[in-house]
Design goal:
single chain, 5-stranded mixed β-sheet, 2 domains, 1 helix, alpha+beta
Length: 141
């Protein structure tokens, strides 16, 4: 009789020990993984050409396509034609599930920026993981 109770109890304990990490992992992640959508950035210039030592407005829309509340890091940067990268905006943004937010930031183009096409990008990260990015081209004179 004793043997009949010990084996099922031992099996139950083993099952609980195996399942515990799964419950903890689900609670830690909030029940959903990160998901973001970035539209193509729009620029404040009427043409895609501007001069060095000026400023350009960068406008975009970021959407949390995850079902739960999320906090993402959003970064705006530009890479000139000679490979110089300028990070002009970075910050944490909180989103409800399915929520979209508009971005409006200034990109100050340095006087020593190389002439030619520059790539202006908006990127969304969760932790160190890139979730989404979009870019547009701006020609610097």
């Amino acid at each position: 009789m004793k043997n009949c109770l010990v084996k099922p109890a031992l099996a139950l304990v083993c099952l609980v020990l195996v399942a515990l990490p799964l419950f903890g992992q689900r609670a830690k992640g909030g029940g959903s993984t990160g998901c973001a959508i970035v539209d193509t950035p729009r620029l404040s210039t009427t043409t895609t050409t501007t001069e060095a030592n000026s400023s350009v407005g960068v406008f975009d829309r970021v959407t949390n396509c995850a079902t739960g509340k999320k906090k993402y890091t959003v970064t705006g940067s530009a890479v000139s034609s000679c490979g110089q990268e300028t990070v002009f905006a970075t910050g944490a943004m909180s989103f409800a599930g399915g929520e979209s937010k508009n971005l409006s930031v200034a990109y100050p183009i340095a006087a020593d920026t190389c002439a030619g096409p520059a790539t202006v990008s908006i990127r969304v990260y969760e932790g160190g993981t890139l979730l989404s990015s979009a870019s547009t081209t701006l020609t610097v004179q």
